[in-house]
Design brief:
The complex is a heterodimer of chains A (209) and B (205). With 209 residues, chain A is an all-alpha fold. Chain A is built from ten helices and no strands. Chain B has two domains: 2-57, no CATH class; 89-204, no CATH class. The radius of gyration of chain B is 37 Å and the shape is elongated. The chains are: A mainly alpha (209), B mainly alpha (205). Chains A and B meet through helix 1, helix 2, helix 3, helix 4 and helix 7 of A and helix 1, helix 3, helix 4 and helix 9 of B.
C-alpha cells in the first residue's frame, strides 16, 4: 500500500521535472522516470518515423526501437540541445539505417534506381481520373516524398510535414544552415518534377485511351 | 532567359517558405504572365504546399500501449551509466526513511495524545495496558506543564480544535501533515542531481 502510494507520488514528481532532470533520474537507475520521457515524446517520434516510412506497422516497431536507442544513449544527451531535437536526430538516423539494411536485403541496385519512377507509374495507373480529393493528393505527395533520396527526404519531411525551422533541422542533421536550405530547395524541385511527370504521364495516358 | 527564370525560381522558394513580400510577389506575377514554364512550376509548387498543409493538419499519435511496450523492453536492459552519482544508495535511503518514519510517527502520536489523552488513556487502561499509561503520563504532564507555562496557547488551540472540528477531521489532518512531511523530504531533488551529472559528464566524456 505504502509502495503504491509512493509510486503515485514519484510519478507526480516526474510530471513536474524537466527533460534533463528525467534523464538524470534514469541515469541514477530510476527506470520509471523514462516512461515520462516516452509519453512526452512518443507522438513526436512516431509521427516523424511514420512520415518517413509511411507503413504504420513499420513505424510502430521503428519508433519503439528509437526509444530503446535513446535509453541506451541517455548519457550522450547534452543539455545544449533540446531533447526533442536530439530525439528527432536519433529517429531520422535510425530510419535511414533501417532503409539501408532493408534495401540490401530485398532490393537489387537496379530496382533501387527505379523506385521513384516505378512508384510514379503505379500511381498514375491507379488513378485514371483527373479528379483528386485532397486526401489522395497528399497521399500521392507523401509517396513521392518517400521516393526521394534520404538526403532530401529527411529535411523535406522535417520542414514541410513536421513544421521545424531550418535552424532546428541543421541542429538535427549536423549540417550547416546553407546546406540544409539547398537540400530543401533541391528536394522541392525534385518533387515538382515528379509531380509534373506524373501529370504529363496521366494526360498522355488519358489521351492514348 | 535561363538565369532570369532561375531568379524567379528563388522567389518561388521564398514563397514556399512563406517569406515572399508584396513587391517580390508582384515581380513574380509579372514574369509569370510572360513565362509559361515558370507559371507551370509555380502551379506545381502551390499544389505541393496545399498538400503539405493538408497533411500537416492531421495529428499523428503513437498507437495505444506504445509507452508500455517500450517500458517492457527497457526493463530487460541492464546498462551501467558511468556518470551515475549515487552508488546504489539503497542502504542510506532506507536508514533515512526509517528515521523519518520514526519522526512522523512520533509527531502523529504526540498530536493524538495532546488532543485526546484522556480518551486514549482510558482505552489503554481498559485493555490492560496501564504500563504504557504510566510511562506516558509524565510526558503528557510535562507537555501540558510547558504549554501552561507558555500561556496556555496549546490548550486554547486544542480546545478550539476540539469544539470546532470533528474528531475524524482532526485525525485526517494530522495524518495528512505527516504524509506531506514525508513526501517533501523524500521527493528527489533531481535539479541538483542533474547539475552534478552534467559536471561529471564533462569530466568523463
Amino acid at each position: 500500500m505504502v509502495n503504491e502510494w509512493f509510486k503515485v507520488v514519484t510519478l507526480l514528481n516526474y510530471a513536474k521535472m524537466t527533460d534533463y532532470e528525467l534523464v538524470a533520474a534514469c541515469i541514477e537507475g530510476e527506470k520509471n522516470s523514462f516512461e515520462e520521457l516516452v509519453s512526452r515524446y512518443k507522438n513526436l517520434v512516431y509521427s516523424v518515423v511514420l512520415r518517413m516510412v509511411t507503413d504504420k506497422e513499420d513505424a510502430n516497431d521503428l519508433a519503439q526501437e528509437v526509444f530503446i536507442k535513446i535509453y541506451r544513449n541517455l548519457e550522450k544527451y547534452s543539455e545544449e540541445y533540446k531533447f526533442s531535437t536530439w530525439t528527432i536526430r536519433i529517429a531520422t538516423n535510425h530510419v535511414i539505417d533501417w532503409r539501408r539494411k532493408k534495401k540490401y536485403e530485398t532490393v537489387s541496385i537496379d530496382d533501387e534506381e527505379n523506385t521513384v519512377a516505378g512508384g510514379l507509374m503505379a500511381n498514375s495507373g491507379a488513378s485514371p481520373e483527373d479528379e483528386y480529393i485532397a486526401d489522395e493528393q497528399s497521399r500521392m505527395l507523401r509517396d513521392l516524398v518517400a521516393g526521394l533520396p534520404d538526403i532530401y527526404r529527411v529535411p523535406i519531411v522535417l520542414y514541410h510535414e513536421q513544421g521545424l525551422s531550418y535552424q532546428e533541422i541543421s541542429e538535427i542533421t549536423g549540417e550547416p544552415l546553407s546546406k540544409v536550405k539547398n537540400r530543401i530547395f533541391r528536394g522541392r524541385k525534385l518533387l515538382k518534377e515528379s509531380l509534373m511527370n506524373l501529370r504529363r504521364g496521366g494526360e498522355s495516358y488519358g489521351v492514348g485511351m | 532567359m535561363v538565369s532570369a527564370c532561375e531568379k524567379y525560381g528563388e522567389l518561388m522558394m521564398k514563397y514556399m517558405d512563406g517569406r515572399l513580400d508584396d513587391f517580390e510577389q508582384m515581380n513574380l506575377d509579372k514574369h509569370m504572365e510572360a513565362c509559361e514554364a515558370c507559371r507551370e512550376d509555380f502551379a506545381m509548387y502551390q499544389e505541393m504546399l496545399a498538400s503539405f498543409d493538408h497533411s500537416n493538419e492531421e495529428i499523428i499519435e503513437a498507437p495505444e500501449g506504445f509507452a508500455a511496450a517500450v517500458m517492457e523492453k527497457v526493463e530487460d536492459i541492464n546498462i551501467y551509466f558511468p556518470t551515475k552519482i549515487r552508488n546504489d544508495g539503497k542502504v542510506l535511503d532506507s536508514v533515512i526513511m526509517a528515521v523519518w518514519g520514526f519522526l512522523v510517527a512520533t509527531f502523529v502520536m504526540g498530536s493524538a495524545l495532546l488532543l485526546y489523552n484522556e480518551a486514549i488513556f482510558e482505552w489503554l487502561t481498559a485493555n490492560g495496558l496501564g504500563v504504557i499509561v504510566a510511562a506516558l503520563q509524565p510526558i503528557v504532564d510535562f507537555a501540558f506543564g510547558i504549554s501552561s507555562a507558555i500561556g496556555g496557547y496549546t490548550s486554547i488551540a486544542s480546545g478550539w480544535f476540539g469544539t470546532n472540528i470533528s474528531d475524524f477531521a482532526i485525525i485526517a489532518l494530522i495524518i495528512f501533515v505527516g504524509l506531506v512531511a514525508v513526501q517533501f523530504y523524500m521527493s528527489p531533488k533531481y535539479a541538483q542531481v542533474a547539475a552534478q551529472i552534467k559536471k561529471r559528464r564533462r569530466k568523463i566524456m
